[in-house]
Amino acid sequence: MLNKYPLWKNLMVVLVIAVAALYALPNLYGEDAAVQVSASRNATVTTATVDRVRDALDQAEIEPKSVAMIDDQILIRFSSDNDQLRGRDLILSELGTDYTVALNLAPATPDWLNGLGATPMKLGLDLRGGVHFLMEVDMQEAIRKIQNQLVDSIRGDLREERIRYTQVERDGNNVVVTLRTQDDFERADSFMNNRYEGYTDSTDSDSRTITLRMTDQKLTETESYAISQNVTILRNRVNELGVAEPLVQRQGADRIVVQLPGVQDTAQAKEILGATATLEFRLVDTENDIRDAEAGRVPFGSELFPRREGGNILLSQSVILTGDHIVNASSGFDENGMAQVNISLDGAGGDKMSLASRDAVGKQMATVFIEYKATGKRDEEGKIIFERNAEVISAATITTRLGQNFRITGVGSQQEAQNLSVLLRAGALIAPIQIVEERTVGPSLGQENIDKGIQAIMWGFVLVLAFMVFYYKKFGLVANTALATNLILIIGVMSMIPGATLTLPGMAGIVLTVGMAVDANVLIFERIREEIKAKRSPQQAIHHGYDSALSTIADANVTTLIAAIILFSVGTGPVKGFAVTLAIGIITSMFTAIIGTRAIVNSVWGGKRLSKLSI
């Protein structure tokens, strides 16, 4: 019998549409202005914390829509943006710096849909807005790091030249080298003269000192490098968070703007973006008595560090390796089920670790975790003052020569291990940063422009529907049903893909696929008309019309799909957004225009004796 689908095929069509409609449904519920609270390493979120938040809001006469603890975090929903901002400031003052308090836009999806894993489609900054962070870079710390690298370099060069020195130390933006003897002074003066680019040297023979001063050009280059590298690293961190089409750019001399669209866990984003964490690997000093160091008599060449689990440990001042050489890091579990971070180094880092561990088998190597936190105070120039916190998270005996891959333990919980691996993969910030401003932002295109764009899409869609009904009668209604179903499928698929974000160029891709879906139906319907004119029966005309148009439709859509894949591969930002919706729309339009309309046509006209068709 012509034009009859088997039962399984009809059920497949219904099932695909039903699943897509289910996952597209959350987009109808909108979002709530919310505040998200998560604990730092030194605190935990408990029911008592929730009660503190509720009590603080009640005393301030702020009525939240809901306060709930979800996955060790507190999510407070508000009725308005004004209540959201007031609530954020109040909660921050109540809980203090042990907690991360971040603005959020929480989906208002019902619990039964959340239970099925159905979430709304993510929208880009141009359509929805997002979270805005303004960050300030600590330039003094950037200069300090450069100076420390110079100090280490000078010490190594003098040792290689067998020139004895009393000390090499920083003095503000200068580095002062004090030599032991007059002969050492003269040899060092000759050796160091104009050796270090970006520094001018001056000498004092009486005190046997050589002072290297950073030039203004070097200072400017250092500050510019710190900003550009921090921008790059922040982009890497945003990518690790899985945020699509973010905005990360420099603003002024020492500030960076970060705007994140569609972020659900803004507390984690705030913590990871603002963290200035890195690792140092040093040998444990076992030759000196730690009790002398704890009493204030720290041996020359050593440094006292606190342990994360308590107590102190004495380490060598010489750093074997820093986090700058880490190319990959992943969290996992050791043989005891404790959290660990697996480290992969670059070639230079692997060589350094191999050389250092070769002569240190049997000795202990410590992993030092270093982070910078804002003190909330500012210096005379108004710059934020940062506090350097360093602690030893593990100290293990080197049993064999190490290479490019090894692991560190003692990192705390699995969540802390995951966050540390994200930071290490993205790279350590060149200088500490502090979030000085945080707010939610509206759509970058302006609501009026967005409304006009949506109106243009809707009018175009309505005109297409009207034309199809006018020109193809009942078969036009079938095509219109397929077009509406196609939109539901696109929205459903976009909502199911975790990294997919809809932007205005993406909406243009949807409009294009709607037109292509109409083209497919036009080809089919015109072919059916030709078969009818050729004196075939209505059932034969439908059968041959679909079969004959299939190859033409497939060729046109496959070539367009290839173009979409190329656009996604080589494009960035808006181009990728357009390519994603175009590719999804091509696949769904082929499904609805060929299989979907065929199922409707077969159900209405298939297997019946017909004298004519309403086409």
UniProtKB/TrEMBL annotation:
It is found in: Cell membrane. The chain crosses the membrane at residues 453-472, 477-497, 503-525, 546-571, 577-601. One of its GO terms (molecular function) is protein-transporting ATPase activity. Residues 227-285 form the Protein translocase subunit SecDF P1 domain. Residues 2-103 form the SecD export protein N-terminal TM domain. It is a multi-pass membrane protein. GO terms for cellular component: plasma membrane. Residues 303-431 form the SecDF P1 head subdomain domain. Residues 433-600 form the Protein export membrane protein SecD/SecF C-terminal domain. Keywords: Cell membrane, Membrane, Protein transport, Translocation, Transmembrane, Transmembrane helix, Transport. GO terms for biological process: intracellular protein transmembrane transport; protein targeting; protein transport by the Sec complex. Part of the Sec protein translocase complex. Interacts with the SecYEG preprotein conducting channel. SecDF uses the proton motive force (PMF) to complete protein translocation after the ATP-dependent function of SecA. Forms a complex with SecF. Part of the essential Sec protein translocation apparatus which comprises SecA, SecYEG and auxiliary proteins SecDF-YajC and YidC. NCBIfam families: 2A0604s01 (TIGR00916), secD (TIGR01129). Belongs to the SecD/SecF family. SecD subfamily. This is Protein translocase subunit SecD. It comes from Pseudidiomarina planktonica.
